[in-house]
Design goal:
Elements (H helix, E strand, L loop, with lengths): L1 H20 L1 H10 L17 E4 L3 H16 L4 E5 L2 H10 L4 E4 L5 H11 L3 E5 L5 H9 L4 E6 L3 H8 L2 H7 L3 E6 L2 H10 L5 E3 L14 H8 L6 E8 L3 H15 L3 E7 L5 H10 L4 E3 L9 E3 L6 H6 L3 E4 L12 H5 L3 E4 L7 H9 L3 E3 L5 H9 L2 H17 L3 H13 L1
Parallel strand pairs: 1-2, 1-4, 2-3, 4-5, 5-6, 6-7, 8-9, 8-12, 9-11, 10-11, 12-13, 13-14
Helix pairs in contact: 3-4, 5-6, 7-9
Length: 411
Protein backbone atom coordinates (compact mmCIF):
# COMPACT_ATOMS: atom_id res chain seq x y z
CA UNK A 1 0.00 0.00 0.00
CA UNK A 2 2.88 2.40 0.77
CA UNK A 3 4.25 1.77 -2.69
CA UNK A 4 0.89 2.63 -4.31
CA UNK A 5 0.63 5.76 -2.17
CA UNK A 6 4.11 6.87 -3.22
CA UNK A 7 3.43 6.17 -6.89
CA UNK A 8 0.08 8.00 -6.73
CA UNK A 9 1.75 11.03 -5.12
CA UNK A 10 4.51 10.99 -7.72
CA UNK A 11 2.00 10.71 -10.57
CA UNK A 12 -0.02 13.63 -9.19
CA UNK A 13 3.14 15.72 -8.83
CA UNK A 14 3.96 15.04 -12.49
CA UNK A 15 0.39 15.89 -13.55
CA UNK A 16 0.49 19.18 -11.65
CA UNK A 17 3.83 20.16 -13.23
CA UNK A 18 2.58 19.24 -16.71
CA UNK A 19 -0.66 21.13 -16.05
CA UNK A 20 1.08 24.36 -15.03
CA UNK A 21 3.67 24.18 -17.83
CA UNK A 22 1.00 23.55 -20.49
CA UNK A 23 -1.65 25.84 -18.95
CA UNK A 24 -1.49 28.53 -21.70
CA UNK A 25 -1.83 25.86 -24.37
CA UNK A 26 -4.66 24.16 -22.46
CA UNK A 27 -6.55 27.46 -22.25
CA UNK A 28 -6.04 28.01 -25.98
CA UNK A 29 -7.34 24.53 -26.78
CA UNK A 30 -10.13 24.99 -24.25
CA UNK A 31 -11.23 28.21 -25.94
CA UNK A 32 -11.12 26.54 -29.35
CA UNK A 33 -13.33 23.63 -28.24
CA UNK A 34 -15.46 25.58 -25.70
CA UNK A 35 -13.94 23.79 -22.70
CA UNK A 36 -12.49 26.79 -20.84
CA UNK A 37 -15.21 26.58 -18.21
CA UNK A 38 -13.53 23.39 -17.03
CA UNK A 39 -10.61 25.45 -15.67
CA UNK A 40 -12.73 28.06 -13.89
CA UNK A 41 -13.55 28.25 -10.20
CA UNK A 42 -17.07 27.04 -9.36
CA UNK A 43 -19.27 29.43 -7.42
CA UNK A 44 -19.01 29.01 -3.66
CA UNK A 45 -22.07 27.38 -2.14
CA UNK A 46 -23.36 27.20 1.40
CA UNK A 47 -26.30 24.85 0.83
CA UNK A 48 -24.17 21.70 0.51
CA UNK A 49 -25.64 20.30 -2.73
CA UNK A 50 -25.66 16.75 -3.95
CA UNK A 51 -23.03 16.69 -6.70
CA UNK A 52 -24.10 14.62 -9.72
CA UNK A 53 -21.15 13.60 -11.91
CA UNK A 54 -22.55 12.61 -15.31
CA UNK A 55 -19.92 12.36 -18.04
CA UNK A 56 -21.89 12.93 -21.22
CA UNK A 57 -25.29 12.75 -22.90
CA UNK A 58 -25.99 9.11 -22.02
CA UNK A 59 -25.22 9.59 -18.33
CA UNK A 60 -27.24 12.81 -18.14
CA UNK A 61 -30.23 11.07 -19.72
CA UNK A 62 -29.88 8.17 -17.29
CA UNK A 63 -29.88 10.51 -14.30
CA UNK A 64 -32.82 12.76 -15.27
CA UNK A 65 -35.54 10.92 -13.33
CA UNK A 66 -33.26 10.55 -10.29
CA UNK A 67 -32.35 14.26 -10.29
CA UNK A 68 -36.01 15.23 -10.52
CA UNK A 69 -36.84 12.97 -7.60
CA UNK A 70 -34.02 14.45 -5.47
CA UNK A 71 -35.28 17.95 -6.28
CA UNK A 72 -38.81 16.94 -5.26
CA UNK A 73 -37.36 15.77 -1.94
CA UNK A 74 -35.89 19.24 -1.44
CA UNK A 75 -32.20 18.45 -1.94
CA UNK A 76 -30.05 21.10 -3.67
CA UNK A 77 -28.22 19.69 -6.70
CA UNK A 78 -25.15 20.62 -8.73
CA UNK A 79 -24.33 18.75 -11.96
CA UNK A 80 -20.87 18.08 -13.39
CA UNK A 81 -20.38 16.94 -16.96
CA UNK A 82 -17.22 16.03 -18.84
CA UNK A 83 -18.47 16.98 -22.33
CA UNK A 84 -20.02 20.16 -23.66
CA UNK A 85 -22.83 18.14 -25.26
CA UNK A 86 -23.62 16.64 -21.86
CA UNK A 87 -23.62 20.11 -20.31
CA UNK A 88 -25.88 21.49 -23.06
CA UNK A 89 -28.37 18.68 -22.54
CA UNK A 90 -28.34 19.09 -18.75
CA UNK A 91 -28.92 22.84 -19.08
CA UNK A 92 -31.80 22.31 -21.49
CA UNK A 93 -33.49 19.92 -19.03
CA UNK A 94 -32.58 21.70 -15.79
CA UNK A 95 -32.16 25.42 -16.61
CA UNK A 96 -32.64 26.30 -12.95
CA UNK A 97 -29.65 24.24 -11.71
CA UNK A 98 -25.96 25.09 -11.54
CA UNK A 99 -24.20 22.94 -14.14
CA UNK A 100 -20.50 22.99 -14.91
CA UNK A 101 -17.82 21.30 -16.94
CA UNK A 102 -15.26 19.27 -15.00
CA UNK A 103 -13.24 17.36 -17.60
CA UNK A 104 -9.77 17.64 -16.03
CA UNK A 105 -8.90 15.22 -13.23
CA UNK A 106 -6.04 17.24 -11.73
CA UNK A 107 -5.87 17.11 -7.94
CA UNK A 108 -5.83 20.82 -7.14
CA UNK A 109 -8.87 21.40 -9.41
CA UNK A 110 -10.80 18.61 -7.70
CA UNK A 111 -9.82 19.86 -4.23
CA UNK A 112 -10.90 23.39 -5.14
CA UNK A 113 -14.24 22.08 -6.38
CA UNK A 114 -14.82 20.16 -3.13
CA UNK A 115 -13.82 23.18 -1.05
CA UNK A 116 -16.13 25.62 -2.86
CA UNK A 117 -19.13 23.39 -3.56
CA UNK A 118 -18.96 21.55 -0.22
CA UNK A 119 -21.18 18.70 -1.49
CA UNK A 120 -22.95 16.58 1.11
CA UNK A 121 -22.84 13.61 -1.27
CA UNK A 122 -21.37 12.78 -4.69
CA UNK A 123 -23.35 10.59 -7.07
CA UNK A 124 -21.22 9.18 -9.88
CA UNK A 125 -23.36 7.98 -12.79
CA UNK A 126 -22.46 4.64 -14.39
CA UNK A 127 -18.68 3.98 -14.57
CA UNK A 128 -16.77 7.21 -14.14
CA UNK A 129 -13.83 6.22 -11.95
CA UNK A 130 -11.76 9.42 -11.73
CA UNK A 131 -8.86 8.81 -9.29
CA UNK A 132 -8.41 12.39 -8.11
CA UNK A 133 -12.14 12.93 -7.68
CA UNK A 134 -12.21 9.86 -5.43
CA UNK A 135 -9.10 11.00 -3.57
CA UNK A 136 -10.27 14.60 -3.08
CA UNK A 137 -13.65 13.38 -1.80
CA UNK A 138 -11.92 10.95 0.54
CA UNK A 139 -9.69 13.69 2.00
CA UNK A 140 -12.73 15.96 2.48
CA UNK A 141 -14.79 13.12 4.01
CA UNK A 142 -17.49 13.46 1.35
CA UNK A 143 -19.41 10.22 0.79
CA UNK A 144 -19.65 8.82 -2.75
CA UNK A 145 -22.32 6.58 -4.26
CA UNK A 146 -22.08 5.02 -7.71
CA UNK A 147 -25.57 5.07 -9.26
CA UNK A 148 -26.84 3.15 -12.28
CA UNK A 149 -23.41 1.56 -12.12
CA UNK A 150 -22.18 -0.75 -14.83
CA UNK A 151 -18.82 -2.40 -15.37
CA UNK A 152 -17.81 -4.50 -18.35
CA UNK A 153 -15.59 -7.55 -18.02
CA UNK A 154 -12.88 -5.75 -20.02
CA UNK A 155 -12.96 -2.71 -17.72
CA UNK A 156 -12.93 -4.95 -14.66
CA UNK A 157 -9.73 -6.67 -15.82
CA UNK A 158 -8.06 -3.28 -16.28
CA UNK A 159 -9.22 -1.92 -12.93
CA UNK A 160 -8.21 -5.08 -11.04
CA UNK A 161 -4.59 -4.27 -11.92
CA UNK A 162 -4.85 -1.16 -9.70
CA UNK A 163 -7.25 -2.55 -7.11
CA UNK A 164 -5.01 -1.63 -4.12
CA UNK A 165 -4.81 1.96 -5.42
CA UNK A 166 -8.59 2.17 -5.85
CA UNK A 167 -9.05 0.84 -2.34
CA UNK A 168 -6.66 3.49 -1.00
CA UNK A 169 -8.25 6.46 -2.78
CA UNK A 170 -11.83 5.19 -2.65
CA UNK A 171 -12.42 5.16 1.09
CA UNK A 172 -15.35 7.58 0.64
CA UNK A 173 -17.28 5.14 -1.55
CA UNK A 174 -20.23 4.17 0.66
CA UNK A 175 -22.42 2.25 -1.79
CA UNK A 176 -22.57 0.98 -5.36
CA UNK A 177 -25.99 0.65 -6.97
CA UNK A 178 -25.47 -1.68 -9.94
CA UNK A 179 -27.67 -2.04 -13.00
CA UNK A 180 -27.64 -5.86 -13.12
CA UNK A 181 -26.57 -8.99 -11.26
CA UNK A 182 -23.52 -9.26 -13.55
CA UNK A 183 -22.51 -5.65 -12.82
CA UNK A 184 -23.02 -6.30 -9.10
CA UNK A 185 -20.70 -9.32 -9.19
CA UNK A 186 -17.99 -7.38 -11.02
CA UNK A 187 -18.11 -4.42 -8.64
CA UNK A 188 -17.94 -6.80 -5.68
CA UNK A 189 -14.68 -8.17 -7.06
CA UNK A 190 -13.29 -4.66 -7.48
CA UNK A 191 -14.57 -3.02 -4.28
CA UNK A 192 -15.00 -5.99 -1.95
CA UNK A 193 -15.38 -3.79 1.15
CA UNK A 194 -18.24 -1.66 -0.26
CA UNK A 195 -21.94 -2.66 -0.17
CA UNK A 196 -23.12 -3.38 -3.73
CA UNK A 197 -26.83 -3.54 -4.57
CA UNK A 198 -28.59 -4.71 -7.70
CA UNK A 199 -30.72 -1.58 -8.11
CA UNK A 200 -31.84 -1.86 -11.74
CA UNK A 201 -31.29 0.46 -14.66
CA UNK A 202 -32.37 4.09 -14.24
CA UNK A 203 -32.63 4.39 -18.01
CA UNK A 204 -35.94 2.53 -17.74
CA UNK A 205 -37.27 5.42 -15.63
CA UNK A 206 -37.77 7.82 -18.50
CA UNK A 207 -39.69 11.08 -18.42
CA UNK A 208 -39.68 12.28 -22.02
CA UNK A 209 -41.74 15.05 -23.63
CA UNK A 210 -45.20 14.40 -25.04
CA UNK A 211 -45.54 15.58 -28.64
CA UNK A 212 -48.39 16.55 -30.91
CA UNK A 213 -47.39 14.07 -33.62
CA UNK A 214 -50.03 15.27 -36.09
CA UNK A 215 -48.81 18.87 -35.85
CA UNK A 216 -45.14 17.93 -36.16
CA UNK A 217 -45.84 15.82 -39.23
CA UNK A 218 -47.88 18.61 -40.76
CA UNK A 219 -45.12 21.15 -40.08
CA UNK A 220 -42.59 18.85 -41.73
CA UNK A 221 -44.76 18.05 -44.72
CA UNK A 222 -45.13 14.37 -43.80
CA UNK A 223 -48.26 12.87 -45.37
CA UNK A 224 -50.55 10.38 -43.70
CA UNK A 225 -49.38 7.48 -45.87
CA UNK A 226 -45.65 8.27 -45.59
CA UNK A 227 -43.48 5.68 -43.86
CA UNK A 228 -41.09 7.44 -41.47
CA UNK A 229 -37.86 5.65 -40.60
CA UNK A 230 -35.67 7.29 -37.93
CA UNK A 231 -32.01 6.37 -37.43
CA UNK A 232 -31.03 7.77 -34.03
CA UNK A 233 -27.48 8.35 -32.73
CA UNK A 234 -25.75 7.23 -35.91
CA UNK A 235 -21.98 6.76 -35.82
CA UNK A 236 -19.29 6.78 -38.54
CA UNK A 237 -20.06 4.26 -41.28
CA UNK A 238 -23.74 3.99 -40.42
CA UNK A 239 -24.87 6.95 -42.51
CA UNK A 240 -23.10 5.43 -45.50
CA UNK A 241 -24.74 2.09 -44.70
CA UNK A 242 -28.30 3.44 -44.81
CA UNK A 243 -27.59 5.66 -47.82
CA UNK A 244 -26.19 2.64 -49.65
CA UNK A 245 -29.45 0.70 -49.30
CA UNK A 246 -31.76 3.70 -49.55
CA UNK A 247 -32.39 3.48 -53.34
CA UNK A 248 -33.66 -0.11 -53.02
CA UNK A 249 -35.59 0.76 -49.86
CA UNK A 250 -37.39 3.54 -51.72
CA UNK A 251 -38.26 1.14 -54.54
CA UNK A 252 -39.82 -1.27 -52.06
CA UNK A 253 -41.24 1.40 -49.71
CA UNK A 254 -42.15 4.25 -52.12
CA UNK A 255 -43.48 6.56 -49.38
CA UNK A 256 -40.29 6.28 -47.29
CA UNK A 257 -38.94 9.31 -45.47
CA UNK A 258 -35.69 9.01 -43.48
CA UNK A 259 -34.85 10.97 -40.34
CA UNK A 260 -31.12 10.87 -39.62
CA UNK A 261 -29.66 11.99 -36.28
CA UNK A 262 -25.87 11.71 -35.89
CA UNK A 263 -24.75 11.02 -32.34
CA UNK A 264 -22.25 13.90 -32.25
CA UNK A 265 -23.15 17.35 -33.60
CA UNK A 266 -19.55 17.96 -34.70
CA UNK A 267 -20.09 15.30 -37.41
CA UNK A 268 -22.89 17.25 -39.11
CA UNK A 269 -20.64 18.71 -41.87
CA UNK A 270 -19.32 15.22 -42.61
CA UNK A 271 -22.85 13.81 -42.88
CA UNK A 272 -24.05 16.77 -44.97
CA UNK A 273 -21.22 16.07 -47.41
CA UNK A 274 -22.33 12.42 -47.65
CA UNK A 275 -25.89 13.53 -48.38
CA UNK A 276 -24.85 16.01 -51.03
CA UNK A 277 -22.70 13.39 -52.73
CA UNK A 278 -25.69 11.03 -52.72
CA UNK A 279 -27.90 13.73 -54.30
CA UNK A 280 -30.65 13.41 -51.69
CA UNK A 281 -33.15 16.13 -50.92
CA UNK A 282 -32.29 17.17 -47.36
CA UNK A 283 -34.26 19.09 -44.76
CA UNK A 284 -32.51 20.50 -41.70
CA UNK A 285 -34.27 20.71 -38.34
CA UNK A 286 -33.59 24.44 -38.52
CA UNK A 287 -35.25 24.94 -41.91
CA UNK A 288 -38.93 25.59 -42.72
CA UNK A 289 -41.10 22.96 -44.42
CA UNK A 290 -39.76 21.82 -47.79
CA UNK A 291 -39.79 18.79 -50.06
CA UNK A 292 -37.35 16.24 -48.73
CA UNK A 293 -36.56 12.57 -48.49
CA UNK A 294 -34.03 12.87 -45.65
CA UNK A 295 -34.41 15.06 -42.57
CA UNK A 296 -31.06 15.67 -40.90
CA UNK A 297 -31.37 16.43 -37.20
CA UNK A 298 -28.54 18.91 -36.76
CA UNK A 299 -29.42 20.42 -33.38
CA UNK A 300 -29.62 18.99 -29.86
CA UNK A 301 -33.00 18.23 -28.33
CA UNK A 302 -34.88 17.07 -31.44
CA UNK A 303 -34.18 13.33 -31.51
CA UNK A 304 -37.06 12.35 -29.22
CA UNK A 305 -39.55 14.18 -31.45
CA UNK A 306 -38.08 12.23 -34.36
CA UNK A 307 -38.70 9.00 -32.48
CA UNK A 308 -42.25 10.08 -31.60
CA UNK A 309 -43.32 10.62 -35.23
CA UNK A 310 -41.60 7.53 -36.65
CA UNK A 311 -43.08 4.25 -37.80
CA UNK A 312 -39.82 2.39 -37.24
CA UNK A 313 -36.63 3.30 -35.34
CA UNK A 314 -33.05 2.14 -35.86
CA UNK A 315 -30.75 2.76 -32.89
CA UNK A 316 -27.22 3.59 -33.98
CA UNK A 317 -23.74 2.91 -32.73
CA UNK A 318 -24.62 -0.75 -33.11
CA UNK A 319 -23.86 -1.73 -36.71
CA UNK A 320 -20.16 -1.07 -36.19
CA UNK A 321 -18.36 -1.67 -32.92
CA UNK A 322 -19.28 1.46 -30.96
CA UNK A 323 -21.14 -0.39 -28.18
CA UNK A 324 -24.62 0.77 -29.18
CA UNK A 325 -26.84 3.52 -27.78
CA UNK A 326 -29.93 3.62 -25.62
CA UNK A 327 -32.92 1.81 -27.22
CA UNK A 328 -35.25 2.80 -24.38
CA UNK A 329 -36.11 6.26 -25.72
CA UNK A 330 -37.92 4.87 -28.79
CA UNK A 331 -39.41 2.21 -26.48
CA UNK A 332 -40.92 5.07 -24.43
CA UNK A 333 -42.85 6.13 -27.54
CA UNK A 334 -43.93 2.52 -28.19
CA UNK A 335 -41.98 2.18 -31.42
CA UNK A 336 -40.72 -0.95 -33.16
CA UNK A 337 -36.92 -0.98 -32.89
CA UNK A 338 -34.07 -2.39 -34.97
CA UNK A 339 -30.55 -2.49 -33.58
CA UNK A 340 -27.24 -3.88 -34.81
CA UNK A 341 -25.24 -6.67 -33.22
CA UNK A 342 -22.88 -4.38 -31.26
CA UNK A 343 -24.69 -3.31 -28.09
CA UNK A 344 -22.27 -3.96 -25.21
CA UNK A 345 -22.90 -0.50 -23.70
CA UNK A 346 -26.63 -1.20 -23.28
CA UNK A 347 -26.61 -4.99 -23.15
CA UNK A 348 -29.12 -5.39 -20.31
CA UNK A 349 -31.67 -3.05 -21.90
CA UNK A 350 -31.38 -4.84 -25.24
CA UNK A 351 -31.66 -8.33 -23.74
CA UNK A 352 -34.79 -7.37 -21.79
CA UNK A 353 -36.38 -5.86 -24.92
CA UNK A 354 -35.32 -8.89 -26.94
CA UNK A 355 -36.89 -11.30 -24.45
CA UNK A 356 -40.16 -9.38 -24.87
CA UNK A 357 -39.93 -9.55 -28.71
CA UNK A 358 -39.76 -5.75 -28.68
CA UNK A 359 -36.56 -5.37 -30.71
CA UNK A 360 -34.95 -6.98 -33.77
CA UNK A 361 -31.19 -7.49 -33.76
CA UNK A 362 -29.96 -7.02 -37.30
CA UNK A 363 -26.61 -6.57 -39.04
CA UNK A 364 -25.21 -4.84 -42.12
CA UNK A 365 -26.25 -7.66 -44.45
CA UNK A 366 -29.77 -8.20 -43.05
CA UNK A 367 -30.73 -4.57 -42.46
CA UNK A 368 -32.53 -3.93 -45.75
CA UNK A 369 -34.76 -7.01 -45.45
CA UNK A 370 -35.47 -6.38 -41.77
CA UNK A 371 -36.66 -2.84 -42.55
CA UNK A 372 -38.84 -4.03 -45.43
CA UNK A 373 -40.39 -6.86 -43.39
CA UNK A 374 -41.43 -4.47 -40.63
CA UNK A 375 -42.59 -1.81 -43.10
CA UNK A 376 -44.92 -4.38 -44.65
CA UNK A 377 -46.25 -5.60 -41.28
CA UNK A 378 -47.90 -2.76 -39.33
CA UNK A 379 -49.45 -5.20 -36.83
CA UNK A 380 -46.03 -6.62 -35.97
CA UNK A 381 -44.66 -3.10 -35.50
CA UNK A 382 -47.56 -2.16 -33.25
CA UNK A 383 -47.09 -5.28 -31.10
CA UNK A 384 -43.34 -4.66 -30.80
CA UNK A 385 -44.02 -1.10 -29.71
CA UNK A 386 -46.62 -2.24 -27.18
CA UNK A 387 -44.21 -4.77 -25.69
CA UNK A 388 -41.43 -2.17 -25.55
CA UNK A 389 -43.63 0.16 -23.52
CA UNK A 390 -44.55 -2.69 -21.16
CA UNK A 391 -40.85 -3.40 -20.59
CA UNK A 392 -40.34 0.19 -19.44
CA UNK A 393 -43.31 0.04 -17.10
CA UNK A 394 -42.24 -3.25 -15.53
CA UNK A 395 -38.67 -2.05 -14.87
CA UNK A 396 -39.48 1.39 -13.49
CA UNK A 397 -38.78 0.20 -9.90
CA UNK A 398 -35.11 1.16 -10.28
CA UNK A 399 -35.83 4.78 -9.33
CA UNK A 400 -37.37 3.87 -5.97
CA UNK A 401 -34.50 1.50 -5.15
CA UNK A 402 -31.93 4.20 -5.95
CA UNK A 403 -33.69 6.88 -3.93
CA UNK A 404 -33.95 4.62 -0.88
CA UNK A 405 -30.26 3.76 -1.09
CA UNK A 406 -29.23 7.40 -1.48
CA UNK A 407 -31.31 8.48 1.51
CA UNK A 408 -29.62 5.84 3.65
CA UNK A 409 -26.23 7.25 2.70
CA UNK A 410 -27.39 10.81 3.43
CA UNK A 411 -28.26 9.79 6.97
Amino acid sequence: MKLYKALFSLLNLMLEVIYYISYPLLRLIGALYQYNEGFQRPAKRQDRPILIHAASVGEVNAAVALIRELLKEGYPVHINTVTITGRALARSIFPELSISLAPVDVLHLRQRQMRLLRPRLILIVETEIWPNMLYAASKAAIPIVFVNARLSEKSLKNYLKIKPLLRMIGSSIKAIMAQSAEDKARFERLFNTVPVTKAGNLKFCLELPAYDEIKIKSDLGIKQDDFVLCWGSSRPGEEALILGILPELKQRIPALKLILAPRHPKRIPEVEKLLSESCHQKLSTLEPKADWDILLIDALGHLTSGYAISDLVIVGGSFYDFGGHNPLEPAYYAKAIIMGEYYSSCRDSVLILKAANAIIISNQDKLLEDIVILAENPLQRAEMGRQAKIVLTENAHALNVHVRGIKQCLK
